[in-house]
Amino acid sequence: MKKELIIVTGATGVGKTDFVDELILKLVQDDNRLAEIINIDMGQFYEPLSIGTAKPVLRAHRSFSEVGSNVEGPDYKKSKYKQHLFNIVKEPVNFTVTQYRKLVLDKIEELWAQGVLPILVGGSAFYIKSLFFPPKKDYPNYHHELITKPDFDQKSTQELWHKLNAIDPERAKKIDSNDRYRIERALTIWYESGKKPSEFGPEPDIFADKITLLILDRDRNDLYERINKRTVDMLDAGWVDEVKNLGPEWTEFLKKKKLIGYDDIILFLEKKSDQKSLVEKIQQKTRNYAKRQLTFYRKLTQELEKLNKIKIEWINLDNKNFSLYIDQLLDKIL
Question: For residue 63, what is the domain's CATH number?
Answer without folding.
Answer: 3.40.50.300
